[in-house]
Batch of 2 targets.
Target 1
Amino acid sequence: MLHPITQEIAASFGYTPVTPEEGAEQYEVEPDFQDAPKGAIPCTGNVFRNKQGVLRCYWIPAGNNYTSQEKEDLIGWYDIPSLEDIEEWTLGDECYTPVFDQVEADHPDSWLRILNVI
């Protein structure tokens, strides 16, 4: 469910928010790493669908908000957020990284940038 202010923003653009059922679904991204060659090295934004059907995205922190050691520890695969999350972040004034740190939507480590939404 969109925040009331975000709902007003959406309405001003003529946007109809997703239903709760739609919003609960994982944001759909086309996997591009499912059949990668053996030994291929993923990069930020690569997506695969695991055996349970969950879309996961590879992330290498790029912003200056982490130390070198933290960046090394955070590199890896993360579950892609829900459609509701993406909708809220797209229309709102904040976004999150794969490790739930709050950043601006256009920050290099925001989900919106990682997934090429913006």
Note: The CA atoms of residues 74 and 99 lie 8 Å apart.
Target 2
Amino acid sequence: MFNTWSFSLFMMAALVIAATPGPGIFYVAARTLSGGRDEGIASSFGTAIGGLVHVFAGALGVSAIILASAQLFGALKLVGAAYLVWLGIKTICESRMAIPEQGDSTGAVRAFRQGIVVEALNPKTAAFFLAFIPQFIEPAAGHAALQFAVLGLISVTLNTAGDIVVVFMASAARAGLVRKPHVIQRLRQGSGLIISGLGLSLALARRPGTP
């Protein structure tokens, strides 16, 4: 299905993108610093599911329709941005609450659900997949939608692996400070600010192709 040289280029590009700090990495790092390793891992898998939503939507052509419509793009962008800002404010408000004990699955389940929503409502993710993946599709091989889905799945898997590495790094940094409640409180407040900042950044995003 794939040309060897083209697929090799795709893998190299996808690996570089997965290792490059971006909004997704900052989001899962902030969730880890705020709620611990379990929440960070849950967030990573949640954003992966949200990413797959865009992959399959792109394969079906839905994402192209959204990006072509200023109204649809704007609506999705504002809903996603508002959700991120709300999550950030919520994290700040909960910063003085007791830290959940390790093994408490409630926070992880919530983080997983929120990760799905955050990524699924991010039109910039749709724009990325529609700009990046088609460059490596082989029209002569046919089944363009299937090629798009396979390459998208690989990309999401690599991005998630990169996110999990960041989660363990952030978790290790957090573990050294867990006995200092005031420092943890500041970390959770800072994490909330980062999440809200990502929301504001999304709100200012322009539709691809606009000046």
Note: The chain has a mean pLDDT of 82.
